[in-house]
Amino acid sequence: MKALIFALALLFALPAHALMHPDEQLRNTELEARAQNLTHTLRCVVCQNESVEDSSADIARDLRITVRKQILDGKTDDQIRAWLRERYGDYILLDPPVTSRTYALWYAPLAVLAAGIVIILLSFKRKKRR
Amino acid sequence: MKRNLITLLPLLIFMALAVMLANRLIAPRITGTIDSPLIGKPLPDLGITHLPDGPFILNFFASWCGPCVLEHPHLMQFKRDGVTIIGVAFQDKPDAIAAFLKQHGNPYKSVVHDTGQGPAITMGITGVPESYAIDENHIIRLREQGPLEDPGVIANFMKVIKP
């Protein structure tokens, strides 16, 4: 019986993020979903490897509320992202944009993979010749 | 020879990457000139009335912040040197701020309270203390994250504040 109750409780449990910051959430579910999508792509500026949405830091809370205020003010996601980038730089984005400074970050793995494939092909070729 | 080079290539690439990353790790921090996208730009509207006309230091602090206590004597020295400092009390209570300033001295021309989504987010701060050198044209010139106590950083700030 206990197991059944536990299973039912799990079945009807809300997603964790819905309970995490109930006081900050927007009443309009569509706008709230937009806010959550956006803050999931923002990096917490003090915890580095966590999104603003998932972080419990005070500054992340301020950022979540700021994003929601700007959504209510009618700003688009791109406008909000641009506003934050003006202040925190690309650092605020969990996915750094492709710029001349981040070419190595984005393309180095591909280059290393390509180099590996070339080396393997060349060594196969050499073995065949023998 | 050529074959040896190809075999060694992954190792060479790995070593080059390791050297590059290690170099970044041990590179000394250039104090007072930390990259902030706002450096060189006009001070955004912080919603603070009565900002000084001339240059000033914008200092974010809190009574609950240990490094702010370390920084405080340096702010008092700035005040003695005739520098205007505007304080932003970050996520703090007015009573606690009043007690803090009574205990350590008040270096500020005025103190603004930011309980969230105020000047702190507008300036892109990541914590307290954090200070900005604002020049006479209200252009943001320098930022210091952490206590404003390094003699080199203080000298750089003075160059902006007292040209």
What can you see in these coordinates?
Chain A is mainly alpha-helical and 130 residues long. Chain A has six helices and no strands. In chain A, helix 3 crosses helix 4. The relative contact order of chain A is 0.09. In chain B, strands 3-2-1-4-5 form a five-stranded mixed β-sheet, with helices on one face. Chain B is α/β, with parallel strands linked by helices and 163 residues long. Classes of the chains: A mainly alpha (130), B alpha/beta (163).
The largest sheet of chain A is: none
Count of DSSP helices of chain A? 6
User: Outline of chain A, from the CA principal axes?
Assistant: flat
Distance from first to last alpha carbon of chain A: 71 Å
**Mean pLDDT metric of chain B:** 90
Helix proportion range of chain B:
40-55%
Number of E-type strands of chain A: 0
Total beta strand runs of chain B: 5
Helix content of chain A: 55-70%
Number of alpha- plus pi-helical segments of chain B: 5
Oligomer: heterodimer
Largest sheet of chain B: 5 strands, mixed
What characteristic shape of chain B results from the CA principal axes?
elongated
- Specify the structural class of chain A: mainly alpha
Order of helices and strands of chain A: HHHHHH
Structural class per helix/strand content of chain B? alpha/beta
**H/E element sequence of chain B:** HEHEHEHEEH
Q: Cα-atom Rg of chain B, whole angstroms? A: 21 Å
Features of this protein?
heterodimer, A: 130 residues, 6 helices, B: 163 residues, alpha/beta, five-stranded mixed β-sheet, 5 helices
Short characterization:
The complex is a heterodimer of chains A (130) and B (163). Chain A is an all-alpha fold and 130 residues long. Chain A contains six helices and no strands.
